[in-house]
Predict the structure.
Amino acid sequence: MDGFLTNDIPNLDNQLAPNNTNRLLAKDIERRQNLPFSIGGGSRKSGVVQTMYWGNASAGSASETVDLTSLGLTQAPLAMVWFIGATSPKSPSPVTPGAGLLTYGDSESTADLSIPYGASASYNVTKTTLTINCVSQNVGWAYLSLAFFYYIIFYDEPDLDVDGL
């Protein structure tokens, strides 16, 4: 019956036959990408920054600064910063994965992203520096903790609304 849509008669042998194995190929692995790293493909500057902070009586503010003077920006650029994870020798698992976009603001901001071991993080950006701030509290951790952040610096063109991208 060529040309007509027909339903095949179910065959028990076909239904009980094992399915072909789905193999994971190298090209499939290459396709997997992290979202922040994908977004950063067209940036002017990007990288990973680590910040050390205490969770005991030495707790307080800690910050890391990225120098942007080599970009020659005329004003503060569009920037994004992600928290990608933290590690502390005293924690049950050596690495705590992070998944959060930091808010723009100073270290006193109430909208900071909460990061492990009683700390929070935010960032500031000017035309010459990007500063990532960590504010920790005394939660009884006797070791230094390391927080890792991925940053992206985009353009600083003032007339994008007129000229377009």
